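Homework help board

Subject: predicted structure for assignment chain

Our instructor gave us this sequence and asked us to write out the predicted structure in token form, then describe one feature. I got the tokens but I'm not sure how to describe them. Can anyone check?
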Amino acid sequence: MSAPKGAGGIQLPPAFWYEIPHGYLRLDVYPTAERLDDLARQILALPEEVRERADEVFRLYCIVMWEMQKRLVQGCAMGMHPDDRGGVTTSVLTLFSVETRNVDPKAALVTLMASGAGESAETGIVPVELPCGLGFQTETVRRTMAPGRPEGGGDEPEQQPVWQGTIAIPDVRSSAIIAVQLVTSSVDLADDYRNVLRGVASTVSFTNPALADGASGAVEPEPGSAAEAVRNDFG
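My token output:
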């Protein structure tokens, strides 16, 4: 067994920097070919009763990472947090860039908002003040295929509602738009995840923190700031 062709990718230099909040595990979007081959060998060494399922998950991971690489995804993280019912709520955080083909990205977003798309957070695009500049937030609830096998043995995949929030940040150095996107099936926790989304967006920077003056260690977030909300959400 080997990784699907094209699964290994060359990671591009980061176009921006950000912080991952508490409770999120960063996924390797650009695994090396050696890393994938090592995972394949580990799966081959598994007991036969679990090897087939592990192989399916491994191939799905390779395909998803390959698709993310094609879309210039810079980072992806899986979140797991306890809910009020003693269970666990999950979410996926993705950060990527979109080229606007020599069009001023900020002007394009401002024009879109002025056209009537920014009436409220529920119906359109709303501006969000961020340390790195002006961002534009959208959110929606849509239906998508639920993971796992359908209940009752049916052939048609089941669907479930998911909340999706996105903050678009114009990259003033180029014609690109930086997108911070958060998706969760816990639609009833949309307010909490909206705070997490804004908190992550507030950490986006176009300056390498390793080169910043005085970057000698972690800095405590300002009380009441969006960055502090990232740390405090879900306890």
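Reply (TA_rk): Your tokens look well-formed. For the description, you could write something like this. DSSP finds five helices and seven strands in the chain. That's the kind of observation they're looking for.
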